[in-house]
Amino acid sequence: MFLMLATSHFLLAQGRFLEKKQVSLWFGIRDITRDSLANTTNLDFLNYLHSSEEMSEYQYLGVSAHLWFRGSWEADIKVAMYDDFAPKNLNIKAIWLPMKNLGFTAGFYTYPQLMNEFNMFHRLTDEEFYGDTDSNFRQRMVQESGLTAGLMLTFSYRWLHATAYLNGGVSTLSPFTEKVTQKMINGNFKREIRYSTNHSPALFFFPEVDLWADCFTIGNSKAGIRLRTSWYTVSRSVGYSRVIYEWIYENPVRTEVDNPAHHFSKFEFDAGFYLTW
Amino acid sequence: MKVSFGRTRRIALLISLVFLLKVVSSCIDPVWDFDFSFNNIAVKNLDNSGIFVTGLERDTMYTTAVAFMVTLSDETFLASRVLRHGNADFTSFTPASAMSPEFRYHPRHRITGISIVTLEELSAGVPAGTDVTGMFVAHVPHFIGLDFLYLKAEELPAVLDLDFYPGEPSLTFQLFCKQDITNNTAQFVITVTLSDETVLTATTNLITLLRNE
After folding, report:
1. pLDDT in tens, B182-199
2. A203 and B CB contact within 8 Å
3. In whole numbers, what is the pLDDT of chain B averaged over residues?
4. Of A175, A177, A180, A176, which Cα lies nearest the Cα of A120?
């Protein structure tokens, strides 16, 4: 709705520059595949990104707008949200089409994912301790954000339209801090471990395919069904600085930790309706 | 112009005036601040073998989990002696307030020092009679509840010395031994020194120590 209003406002102000516009509403699923490396002496947060045997780890509801400007420029804006209704999934592109079927894109992509029970590392490896005195389910949201660039291929045949994007770029996981508190079993000894992760820039590949089928024509407007699928793959490591306090909050032991790279991929499929006018 | 009240109105006016007088005469200046003296010290065993510290009735502890709870209080302070202003009588209501602040107890003499001396040999280098305050860390449950780790026992006087103590004329702190005691028994004398040179002393029970298997 916000996109529609924003688009309408933009149209009124800049109408002569805009040849066509489209809004869509869709629902989709996201499946995460990531490797899990064996525990070493250091906690590796990427072992705890939410992944399961289920078909999809996340479901999302999204809206998008595609704008065709006069000349060779287009813009594509996608916003999606999980069940928390926070619009934290963004996929924004500026598109330049020097040829009828071939264009170049540049944009910004960001989406959140869950990191669950990273304290299990300490509960499993620190056998003489209560590995984490915090009995709550330890979960945090991490945001992966990146700049994209790539090619766009677009085809239309009568009522069927298809667009393929071959995106690549650099992305990073949002840095975060975490704390794990431990107490010795049958002992007074306590320690507090504080983690502060670093930026983790990595190259990613992100192809997308959009498919539209016109179903209805009402005046100059067309409505139809929209399908989209994408695949995202990246190899990334998350390093951090670790500070350990023992007994009291003095004389901390600081360590910089570099972890091995993990392969990570996600697959998305969503379907919905669109209106073009 | 003649103004006349009916009998009912006159009685209502009279009752209202009496009520207003009672309300006004019921207003008091409540006293929430009291002076007290630390004149009593008590020590209890703590069980710190689990994830959270609890009270311990036995005199048995792990060698790595020797812990005590110390309470300083005013044993002569009686709540019934609290000065009450404005006792309710015929002309006033019982004083009350929607949000009563907590009582504040001001110590006549401040805490200036805390020391711990072992009555048993802790290890080969720590014979009986040694001041082992530096081998203890502390936790003050109600004053510093947010931090997970301990504070040094030497820091206790500065932490415990307050202008007033809210709620009750006493304070409690916990002591935890950092040493892995090699002896089979342990016993300590805990001494608190006040600003008027008063010394409060408590001796722990003789603790039988268990080895961590």
Report:
1. 999 999 999 999 999 999
2. no
3. 86
4. A180
